[in-house]
Amino acid sequence: MIGRIEVFLRDLKRIFSRSEWTIRLLRLAKLKQPTAEPGLVMVQIDGLSMTQFNRALQKGNLPFLQELLSKERYILRSFYSGLPSNTPAVQAELFYGVKGCIPAFHFRDRQTGRAVKMIDLAFVEEFEKRLRAQGPGLLAGGSSYSDIFTGSAKESHCCFSRMGWEGVLWAVNPLVFPFLVILYIDIFIRTLVLVFVEFFLALFECMRGALKGRLFFRELELVWQRSLVCVFLREFITAGVCLDIMRGLPVIHLNFLGYDEQAHGRGPSSDFAHWSLRGIDDAIKRIYNVIKQSPYRHYDLWVYSDHGQAKTTPYYVKYGRTIEEAVQELFPDTVVQVNTSLKGRREVIKSRVSLLNQKKIRSSLKDQTSSTDAIVQPLVIVTAMGPLGHIYVNKDLSTDDIHFYAKKLVSQIKIPLVLTKEGPRVLAWTSRGCFVFPDEAEKIFGKEHPFLEEIKEDLLRVCFHPDAGEFVIAGWCEGDEAISFPLEYGAHASMGPEETHAFVLLPMDAPVEIKNNKDYLRPIDLRHTVQHFFNKKTLGSLIPPAQGISSKRLTLMSYNVHGCAGMDGCISTERIARVIARFNPDIIALQELDVGRLRSGKIDQVEMIARKLEMKFHFHPAFRWKDEQYGNAILSKYPMALIKSGSLPRSADKGRQYEPRGVLWVSVEFEGKKIQVFNTHLSLWPHERDLQVDALLSEQWLQHPDCRGPVVLCGDFNALPRSAVYRKICHELRDSQAILVGHRPRSTWFGQYPVGRIDYVFINNDFHVRSITVPRTDMEKIASDHLPLITELDFIDP
Fold first, then answer.
1. What are phi and psi of 685, to 5 degrees?
2. How much is the CA Rg of the chain, to the nearest whole Å?
3. Residues with Cβ < 8 Å from 67, sequence gap 6 or more?
4. Using N-to-C axis directions, what is the helix angle for 271-291 and 185-211, rounded to 10°?
5. Helix, strand and coil in the chain, % to nearest 5
6. Which pTM does this prediction carry?
7. What is the pLDDT of residues 634-685, one digit of tens each?
């Protein structure tokens, strides 16, 4: 009854949901009926390093993500970005499985001879076609927001390679827009207020930066655009993602740019950059709340950062000239490019803002392309839109020439690290001398670098990239102050520990597969994890056994699964299996399982759950009707034998229709012992429960001559701890929750707001209770009307 009320309230809320009305008004496609296939929402927080993520948690700027860690059992893992440590390279590896697809954010495309940036829409679109030829897109059938590449998404919005939305919005009846404004009036007002708040805070921060010697007027130009990126684009993305969840798209990827943009301008640890994380955290929370209301799929939420940022000093601020001007002194024939490093940061932010104006950006792009093609190529081209860049020399250089210029770039131009190719090896030039890479990588990047072995492979890939320059220049190496060639105080793309060390926040049961015993993921690992998430057939091996724990410890779960019908009205054996797999129990006692019933889709729920968990099982139907069965099951990792199964007494009152009840008894071999495990589900009616407990405690079951050694009685007893039934059982056995020292017994029913303790694990004196868990993450609260009860037991040696 409570479950039906819960479903009714959810359906009622859905009727008045503005997302539902928006989908209808915009005539957006959606699933016609719920599916058992899972969904995934991937949130990328651009530019947030592991260090700054932990700092933001400590400062309270990410309260919802902290809640995921503390209450929802999410696991925080290190994430190595690869090289270059920028968004295009990470997304190419994640979306298409291609490592090191570009040599830098700004480079010379040798196919066309043009210097290109990964914000040039036409080039990015063409480049993604090359990626599609190398591997399938990860987001096929889904949607993509504010990304460099679309990942082959069916729908993409505000992406540099494809825009989206424009066709939908233009096809909508103009009379619909006033209704949309009314539906989202609170968000419009909220966004407008936040934009102005962000604007004035940015203006204040800009003036404070000017007092510290920063270029006031150059920064002032970007204040308004930054406000649009940090607030307006964020709110637009959030609203779109919520619509896609309610439509049932299989995979959704979105990229929040606000922190990255502020960190570039003010530094990654600045208060202003961390302030932007509060808005991002709130947006993720709103998306998560919509996920819980999804009518078509059960979605997972994954949060990660593509890379970090390092605190840098702009080359111009430190030396009073741009990197292009400095290189021109070394190569007198160099023509300084139109797009200098001083303009680079402004180009990026204006491109991000212009994603909201598609027609304008397309027309300006055509003009830009045609004018660029007409430029005569100079002798030397410098591409340095970040702390990693390239110098291209359009003439043959001897080995002596390369060595001469490399030394000058370090000593005269003051570049911290210059890399040159010499046959199959790479020479690394620094102020401390010349080193052979990768043999002497430790001398260049330090022994403490967290990803030293990965960098060896990835940096070679950058240097030998077909589009790499004759000189690869970097703003960081061990022992030198980090610099960035554009005008930015936070930067990424090179090899620094902060730049390459990001994070990934995953549910505890995410199917992570890390090879070579690494303690971190890189984009290709995250790609494999996503593919496994959608393609996995079993769940049994996802949760590894805890390290350093005695093999004599037994983990037992008792769980009333309510026919696998969740509090959202969806019947999902997959979801129940995931709840179980999260805790890796040795023995599982399940109640209320359907086998072949119409509401479960005429499937064998027991067999399906056991197959997913790779466990053995025994099932006892409490009652049968035609081809349908309904009852209890015991699953085990260890060998077990069915001892007995049967019905429990029913009341003689013929005026009422009592539901048949049963009990299942198996013997499980564990650590050389035979454990007697009983699983039951007692009546709702007190008089009938008394009869059933008397039978359980008789020679038919618990007092049976074969019931010797360790004994466990568990199940749904439909009785509170003060009931007569409970007291009778406690005369013979011990309540595991009541005897654990320092543990306050937890309620198990009903799922959303547990108010009653009616599920129990009773044990005899052969066991010692090690721990009790009654998990209450959002998945457990919605999967059934009961919460699982997990008991860790140790044997008491005689």
1. -95, 130
2. 31
3. none
4. 160
5. 40, 25, 40
6. 0.89
7. 999 999 999 999 999 988 776 566 789 999 999 999 989 999 999 999 999 9
